[in-house]
Amino acid sequence: EVQLVESGGGLLQPGGSLRLSCAASGFTVSRYAMSWVRQAPGKGLEWVSTFSGSGAYYADSVKGRFTISRDNFKNTLYLQMNRLRAEDTALYYCAKDQSYCGGDCYSAGYFQDWGQGTLVTVSS
Amino acid sequence: AIQLTQSPSSLSASVGDRVTITCRASQGISSGLAWYQQKPGKAPYLLIYEASSLESGVPSRFSGSGSETDFTLTISSLQPEDFATYYCQQFNGYPRTFGQGTKVEV
Residue B81 and residue B106: Cα distance in Å, rounded? Predict the structure, then answer.
């Protein structure tokens, strides 16, 4: 059974940094593209970043501030968030992309499995 | 970025009703569209991918259609567990984008 468990969220001031983790079980992260999607309180879904065999991709709103990475040994996905802003306040979901693999594995584009999310609140 | 516009933003329906939600893309995306269901306090759940393919385990009362710019999610006979918010998402390149959501209420 696929499980994704996010952690690392919290309350912090604007300009601060945070690293989110997504521990995966039931599959091997190296064989899938993985993504982060966020949802501000009472709002819709917003794609944040994808780690794929073809590279890392970011929404314009986080480019240059957030970095996605993966530890294959720990079977864990990360999101390093720097220079946080109030508008980054959201529930952050980790998602496993449907993927196809040749030598590397690439995202098919949609999110097949989701974690339950970790809340990040940026406020002074 | 490709924008997705869902309509309506919300709708009221009854058990047994046929419900249709539309999603319009700002430019052609072939069949690169997925639909998700989200219930309050829960993570989104994949229903449909590639515009019309039903994800494994999803009830057959859900169906998707469309291509390029106009897409539809249909629930053929609404069940009590289907009251939720539905989102479309395009994957014709990056950035991935979502529609604003459609809330299906009693």
Answer: 11
The secondary structure element, H or E, covering residue A118 is strand A118-122
**Averaged pLDDT, B89-96:** 95
Select from B23, B94, B102 the residue whose CB has the most chain A CBs within 10 Å, as the one to mutate to test that interface: B94
Judged against a pLDDT cut of 90, whether residue A100 lies above it is answered with: no
For B61, what's the count of Cα atoms within 13 Å in the CB-facing half-sphere?
13
**What amino acid is encoded at B35 in this protein?**
W
- For testing contact with chain A, the best of B96, B97, B98, B103 (most A CBs within 10 A): B96
Q: What is the pLDDT of residues A34-88, one digit of tens each?
A: 999 999 999 999 999 999 988 899 999 999 999 999 999 999 999 999 999 999 9
Q: Six-digit token pair at B56?
A: 């494994």
Put simply, whether A54 touches B (Cβ < 8 Å) is no
